[in-house]
Amino acid sequence: MQEERHPPFTAEQAKAWREMIPTPFYVYDEAGIRACATDLYKAFSWNKGFKEYFAVKATPTPAILRLLASLGCGVDCASLIELMLSEKCGIVGKNIMFSSNETRREEYREAVRLGAIVNLDDLTQIENLRAACGTLPDTVCCRYNPGKFQITNDIIGHLADTKFGMPEEQLIEAFRNLRDGGVRHFGIHAMLASCSLEETYYPKLARELFSLALRVREQTGVAVEFIDLSGGIGIPYRPGEQAVDIFAVGAGVKEAYDEILLQNGMEVSIFTELGRYMTGPYGYLLTSVIGKKHTYKEYVGVDATACDLMRPAMYGAYHPITVLGREDEEKTLVCDVVGSLCENNDKFAVDRPLPPTELGDMLAIGAAGAHGRSMGYNYNGKLRCAEFLLKSDGSLVKIRRAETPEDYFATLDIDPAFGI
Ligand SMILES: *Cc1c(COP(=O)(O)O)cnc(C)c1O
Asked: Ligand 1 centre from 377 Cα, in Å?
């Protein structure tokens, strides 16, 4: 089995942080995120217009968005608030991809006001976009759903059953309508897998989309200028899972590019909208052990809950857990690691072998840098926790404060004049 990945900080460091910061809280590793983005750009450096649009939903925190922007990334937004957040971070214009579905008109208006690239999920959205903005923007992308694909995926499921994107005939019709409506720059987008550890995912997807681009050109005269491979590259969660070799992925896409597009005299920019891959491995939820219980099985109780990291409760996701300071001890305690919610699925791990764990120990729940804090919620009156960036120089910087009771009560009106 592959060796376990330990967090980029020690038990002493974490305990010193806890003197100042109440657990639970998130820590993101700046050096890891930087290296990841740098390697991605290197892997696609053969493509002149390559750009990564970081999927904001993965980690919608300004310091993270700005860090990625400083490395050349744009953002992929799916809602009004994500658009507003991007603008507040100074990320505007063609640095925003707006990939939404079931879109409200105010969202189209905001995307177009910011100069974002609009990615349409359906043929009928052309009229919606026109009605929202009075006219069509100069650049539009269309989201493709081929109905089936060589690689199937648990999270996305069968493509014919998924709500995203349009079939080829509709996409061709959309390009005709858009062209007739004055749109001048076009792109094609598809996301056919999620959390895929198969190195061939992007190359196979690229092949589909490159061939589609040729058929679009043939049938409509429209030469698309960019192909958006969207997100979907996975990260290792379980021990033994191998990280994707991004250089092999880049080379695989290049091979398809040379063979299909260059051979046919077509050049495009490659875009990606990775979320999980960019930040997932580099985030840790730090939590303290506050209870131990032996009933029909062993329980280790912590001060974090599914409100801080929902993935295990939501889809039984596996997250690595390090008992800080006990990395070298034998894993003799098989236990459930549980939070305090009044829900039995509030478990970070089930039947997990851990080293003997005592009250006061600190756990680092790993691979939590994407869809972690961002999926947080307030059930049982839980307040969402703070986020910190572990800088490359070793310092720890607060990048989002924890919620306070005042935040929780801000949407309530306790005055009896309001209702009963
Ligand atoms: C969620 C999403 C992404 C990012 O997906 P990851 O699996 O985090 O890479 C990219 N594009 C769209 C349209 C998405 O919905």
From this structure: 20
Check: pTM over 0.85? Answer yes or no: yes
Encoded amino acid at 358, one letter: E
Classified as helix, coil or strand, 262 is helix
**End-to-end CA distance of the chain, in Å?**
60
Does residue 385 have an active-site annotation?
no
Ligand 1 is surrounded, with C-beta below 6 A, by: 55, 57-58, 76, 99, 191, 194-195, 230-232, 273-277, 370
| Partners of 284 in the β-ladder | 27
Output b/e per residue, 6-30; b: 16+ Cβ within 10 A. Answer: ebbbebebbeebbeebebbbbbbbb
- Find the DSSP H helices in 329-398: none
Crossing angle between the packed helical segments 246-256 and 30-43, to the nearest 10 degrees: 20
Residue 254 contacts residue 326 (beta carbons within 8 Å):
no
With 70 as the cut, is the pLDDT of residue 212 above it?
A: yes
Sequence-distant (≥ 6) Cβ neighbours of residue 5 within 8 angstroms: 281, 320, 366
Find out whether 313 and 343 touch, Cβ atoms under 8 Å.
Answer: yes
What's at 57, amino acid-wise?
A: K
In this predicted structure, what is the pLDDT of residue 121? 96
Dist CA 397 CA 391 (whole Å): 7
Quote the CA–CA distance of 92 and 97 in Å, as a whole number: 10
Cα 277 from chain centroid (whole Å):
7
288: which strand partners?
Answer: 362
Tens digit of each residue's pLDDT (9 = 90 or more) over 340-373:
999 999 999 999 999 999 999 999 999 999 999 9
Q: Which long-range contacts (CB under 8 A, 24 or more apart) does 309-315 make?
A: 309/285, 309/348, 309/365, 309/368, 309/372, 309/373, 309/375, 309/376, 310/371, 310/375, 310/376, 310/377, 311/371, 311/372, 311/375, 312/347, 312/348, 312/349, 313/343, 313/345, 313/346, 313/347, 314/375, 315/155
Tell me the CA–centroid distance for residue 59 and ligand 1, in Å: 12
The label of the residue with tokens 């990280």 reads 243
pLDDT tens sequence across 173-210? 999 999 999 999 999 999 999 999 999 999 999 999 99
CA distance 83 to 57: 11
CA distance 58 to 278: 9
